[in-house]
Amino acid sequence: MKKAMCCWVLLGGVIAIAAILAAGCSQQQAAMEQPPLVRSQVVRLEQNSQGAIYSGEVRGRYEKQLSFQVSGKVIRRNVELGSVVNPGDILLEIDARDIVQTVNAGAAQVYSAESQLKLAENNLKRYQELYEQQAISRTQYEQYQNAYDAALAAVQQTSAQYAQGSNQLGYSSLAADCAGIIAAVNVEAGQVVSAGQTVLTLVQAGEQEVEIYIPEHRIEELRKAASVQITFWALPGAKVEGAIREVAPVADKATRTYKVRISLKNPPPEVKLGMTATVTAAGTSAAQKAAYIPLAALYQSGDTPQVWVVNNGAVGLKPVKTGAVADDKVQVLGLAEGEIIVTAGVHKLSPGQIVRTAGDRP
């Protein structure tokens, strides 16, 4: 009797456990059959008046890469990085001994040619008198006339060579042709340089600019900006108005961005070359309205960024244009007011998939 009762108790326990397991499985299956719950956000559009922000560097409008017109060994460097120079200042000198010898040789050739010309001229006068007296033939006279012409041409040739050598002697000293600041020094005394090799960079004194690089889809926006403001990392209280002077017609091969030069209007004297600058381009009154969404909401499988938009419980991809990035949020164009977008787990979704948003939670 006791054994029968034990059997019944064990059997009841097994049945109870089986019932519990069955109930758990049914709950798990029911949970698996429910659409996934996603984190979402309702799109709110804002006027795009903040504009874009770019980092740049203060540069001179006119920057000259200086070089010698002759080759030689640098024997003297009279400037340092950052030196202020005036027109006519001698910046570098090269060893001119070989050039001096060339000039001396040219001077000797000129003297020799002039002597030959004088002899030819005297001979031509004597034989002209003999020809007029019909003492010699015309052929003999023309020979001396031709010798004189050749001697005259030789003088002209050697004089030109001597002048060329004299010019090269002057090229052995590199002089500043304008006032400015030495921005780069590429040689040292004792180094042999070739003609045309850049040895110094001279930034002409006067107008200053800020150089920035922007992506191609922001070029027109920058050109249409209502105002351009420049601030400086080293000068917290300084703010300068700027004007776009130049936009490069070709993108940089490495970064695929376009160089832009912005002129500074009445910069304070504390602004120095090479300072780090921040350029803020404010949008126009007709600027498009943009939305600011989390960076995690962007989904990109190709060249075009996209976001998942929830429509009637199903998700679909919608292409957008991105703009400024700040505080883990990105500015986008292409979304409508009130649309619901997925802001997390975007790489786990597929087009047409049914999802639940936070408001759909039971």
**CATH homologous superfamily annotation of the largest domain:** Efflux pump adaptor protein, beta barrel domain
CATH architecture descriptor text of the largest domain: Beta Barrel
What is the count of structural domains? Answer: 4
Uncertain runs are 1-11
Shape: elongated
Number of strands: 22
Average predicted confidence as pLDDT? 84
Order of helices and strands: HEEEEEEEHHEEEEEHEEEEEEEEEE
Strand content: 25-35%
Topology, element by element:
Blueprint: H1 2-33, E1 40-42, E2 45-47, E3 52-60, E4 63-67, E5 72-77, E6 84-85, E7 90-94, H2 97-132, H3 138-171, E8 173-175, E9 180-185, E10 192-193, E11 198-204, E12 208-214, H4 219-223, E13 227-232, E14 235-247, E15 258-265, E16 276-282, E17 289-294, E18 306-311, E19 314-319, E20 321-326, E21 329-333, E22 340-342
Antiparallel strand pairs: 1-22, 2-17, 3-12, 3-16, 4-11, 5-7, 5-10, 6-9, 7-8, 9-11, 12-15, 13-14, 13-16, 14-15, 17-21, 18-19, 18-22, 20-21
Helix pairs in contact: 2-3
Describe the model.
The protein is an alpha+beta fold and 362 residues long. The protein has 4 domains: 40-47 and 289-360, Beta Barrel (conserved putative lor/sdh protein from methanococcus maripaludis s2 fold), CATH 2.40.420.20; 53-60 and 207-282, Beta Barrel (Elongation Factor Tu (Ef-tu), domain 3); 64-94 and 172-203, RNA polymerase II/Efflux pump adaptor protein, barrel-sandwich hybrid domain (OB fold (Dihydrolipoamide Acetyltransferase, E2P)); 97-171, Helix Hairpins (Orthogonal Bundle), CATH 1.10.287. 30% of the residues lie in helices and 34% in strands. It has 4 helices and 22 strands. It has helices at 2-33, 97-132, 138-171, 219-223, and strands at 40-42, 45-47, 52-60, 63-67, 72-77, 84-85, 90-94, 173-175, 180-185, 192-193, 198-204, 208-214, 227-232, 235-247, 258-265, 276-282, 289-294, 306-311, 314-319, 321-326, 329-333, 340-342. The chain has a 6-stranded antiparallel barrel. Strands 1-22-18-19 form a 4-stranded antiparallel beta sheet, with no helix packed on it. α2 (97-132) runs antiparallel to α3. The protein is elongated and about 130 Å long. It starts with a helix and ends in a 20-residue tail after the last strand. Residues 1-11 have low confidence and may be disordered.
